[in-house]
Amino acid sequence: MFSFANKTITNQKVDLPILNKKKIELFIKREDLIHTIISGNKFRKLKYNILELKKLRKRQIITFGGAFSNHLFACAYLGYINKIKTVGIIRGEELEFEELNYNLKQCQKFGMELKFISRNEYKERNNLRYQKYLLNKFDRSYLIPEGGTNDLGVLGCQEILNENDKYFDSICCPVGSGGTISGLINESKETQIVIGFSALKSSGVEKVINGFVTKKNWKIYQDDLFGGYSKIDEKLVSFINDFFRNYKILLDPIYNSKMLYKIISLINNNNHDFGKKILMINTGGLHSIKGINQKLSKKGCSIINQ
Ligand SMILES: *Cc1c(COP(=O)(O)O)cnc(C)c1O
User: Domain ends where: 124, 148, 172?
Assistant: First the structure.
């Protein structure tokens, strides 16, 4: 069912000049290579959920997301290849009457039924009564929360780390809904620190993480990276393009490029607390580049080279 996922994921060393100067080792875990279509961590979070759905003999998935959600896309695709119907509950009723963006068009292409709801109704997405209402409305369905972040999603993310990764002092990863970092924390050693870089400002994600982990060896950087979620400027575009030219790793514009930019600036300013051996999890998300490039070209800005 997930034959592609048996791939061995490697850690690739990157020799940035600043790292050599400070005698810091940085390795990037190439989770972006798990699959050409779905983001590394989105697959990790869906794997056990889909196995559970099959066990419970449910017929369809209901899940939630915004118009640019990588999670919705991954659900639609995995539903398509596994012959499971998918229903996406989308934030923003106005979108129903606009031309769909690339992400939602792809979801639809993979057979996802899109239901647009108001931002107010969307706030109820984690409310059990609201979820019950949806489960009644859509027959024999299995509900997956926004971002795929539930116990089974976290369990899948624990598989990102392996024995060899005990070598590192710190593990860095981008943070959205908090599922990925929760899995990494559960799998980390107490002597390691897990550092999350939030793509959203003041999201209250610490509370979510605390619901999945008991260890305390983690922290979140939650400053307003590049003006907020999915915001991008010329500086970030050239960072992504330069990095790709030098290291042949393409970083996504929403999560991983912002994280690495921040790691480098913390190291530059001697402000980092990650130790000398850093493992950065590249969670993928390359699928978002197309939509972001559309936005950039509309504004007459330079785009991300692929
Ligand atoms: C969704 C996503 C994240 C955030 O993961 P969470 O488990 O929601 O915190 C990070 N990177 C990429 C590429 C993503 O698509």
Answer: 148
Predicted TM-score (pTM) of this structure: 0.94
Say how many domains are in the chain. 2
CA of 174 to the centre of ligand 1 (A): 6
In the chain, the percentage of residues whose pLDDT exceeds 70 is: 98
- Summarize pLDDT for 148-175 with one digit per residue, the tens: 999 999 999 999 999 999 999 999 999 9
Which of 148, 176, 201 corresponds to the end of one domain? 148
Residue 206, CA atoms < 13 Å, CB-side half-sphere? 10
Q: How many angstroms is it from 124 CA to the middle of ligand 1? A: 21
d(CA 44, CA 96): 30
More confident residue, 36 or 41: 41
Q: For the residues 249-258, what does the mean pLDDT come to?
A: 95
Here the CATH number for the domain that contains residue 203 is 3.40.50.1100
| Ligand 1 pocket test target in 31, 63, 70, 158 with most atoms within 8 Å of CB | 70
Q: Which residues of 4-24 are buried (b: 16+ CB within 10 A; e: fewer)?
A: ebeeebebeebebeebeeeeb
pLDDT of 233 above 70: yes
Residue having the nearest C-alpha atom to atom 3 of ligand 1? 176
